[in-house]
Amino acid sequence: MNLREQACWLLLVFESGLSVRIVNSILALWGKQQGRSLQDFFAADVQEWRTICNIGDDIVEKLEQAREKQVAQAFLAEQLQYDHIQVITVLDPVYPVSLKRTLGLSQLPPMLFVAGDLNVLQRQTIALIGARKAAKESLAFATMAAHYLVTQGGNVVSGYARGVDYAAYEGAISAGGYTTAVLPHGIRKLSKAQLRELHPHIESGKVLVLSQFHPAAPWQMSRAMERNNVVTALAHIVIVAESDKKGGTWEGANEALKQQRPLYVRSAEAGTSLPGNLLLIAKGGQPLPWPIEQAEQVFAPLLKESTILFHKQQEASDPPTKLALKSRTPG
Fold first, then answer.
1. Are the C-beta atoms of residues 261 and 280 closer than 8 Å to each other?
2. H-assigned helices in the chain
3. Among 56, 109, 243, 327, which one is most buried in terms of CB atoms within 10 A?
4. CA distance from start to end of the chain
5. Which class in CATH covers the domain with range 118-315?
6. Of the candidates 60, 222, 243, 296, which has an alpha carbon nearest to the alpha carbon of residue 135?
7. Which residues, including other chains, have CB under 8 Å from residue 283's CB and lie 6 or more apart?
8. What's the pTM?
9. How far apart are CA 17 and CA 20, in angstroms?
10. Quick count: other Cβ atoms within 10 Å of Cβ 291?
11. How many CB atoms are closer than 10 A to CB 64?
12. How many other CB atoms are found less than 10 A from the CB of residue 296?
């Protein structure tokens, strides 16, 4: 995709102020059904927008305002290219199939910004999620789990935040394995220290960094929640190290259950209480004993299950995506 087309995608997805659902509906009608570029879209007149995309005055007004910002978005597209950040759209063949199969039009990110090798996602993928302010036992659990899973060829996906996420990342990196970091902010908001840490692992092909947000978007709680849906949708199974009875991990784990992902939850040690974990087990999560002496005791069966699910996914023919099934955009 050339830089002018990238700029038009940035206009529609981020500068129009339209919801993800409406953006995806426009993409289904204009890009998927008509097979036309977004350069054509922003060069078209208002009547063509109305006729093909079935949109009303309020959406037209937002699109016309977005169209005036093409120069700034073209500059951003050049910056992304300079930073070696790959731009993936929902209409691209390399867009992760698991997201298209799992997420509805209101959740499916129209664009992904990627640093690293997308082939990392072509492995059995296990999500490790948990609280930012987790107990040391939960951090030890996440580190051991990630270390074992990647040594057996798995890809550990996490949210690259403090606490359990970072323990999972470190566990994978320390073992020289593969891991995917799904950011709760724009990819260009990584700090210099984070970039220094990530760069050699990205270059080696072991770390994939992914963001669904505008490259300059700062951290927000709502973005962290949205990010969690992508983390669990990318995974074949989901492991919870520690959860409260509310918050990001709780919502992410419940979303995993809605996505029909096998959910595994760390059990509490004797004399301790993890109320969120207990509630998740009551809702259908499978308990994982802790502490343990050998990681293989607990995680080998999970890896086997993820491998089976991975092969089933590889063998399955691609179903019509939710994007392709939508044919009307509310005005």
1. no
2. 3-10, 20-26, 38-43, 46-53, 57-67, 70-82, 97-102, 136-151, 164-174, 192-203, 221-234, 248-258, 275-282, 295-315, 322-325
3. 243
4. 29
5. alpha beta
6. 243
7. 254, 257
8. 0.92
9. 9
10. 12
11. 13
12. 12
- Furthest CA-CA distance within the chain: 68
CA distance 133 to 314: 37
Q: Which two tokens stand for residue 161?
A: 């935040």
- At 261-304, the pLDDT tens digits run 999 999 976 546 788 999 999 999 999 998 888 899 899 999 88
Q: Give the closest residue to 32 by CA, choosing from 103, 92, 105, 86.
A: 92
Phi-psi region of 195 (alpha: psi -120 to 50; beta: other; left: phi over 0): alpha
Q: What is the mean pLDDT of the chain?
A: 91
- What is the CA 315 to chain-centroid distance, rounded? 23
Counting as low any pLDDT under 50, the low residues of the chain are: 271, 325-327
Q: What residue type is assigned to position 188 of the chain?
A: R
Buried b (16+ CB within 10 A) or exposed e, 234-259: bbbbbbbbbbbeeebbbebbbbbbeb
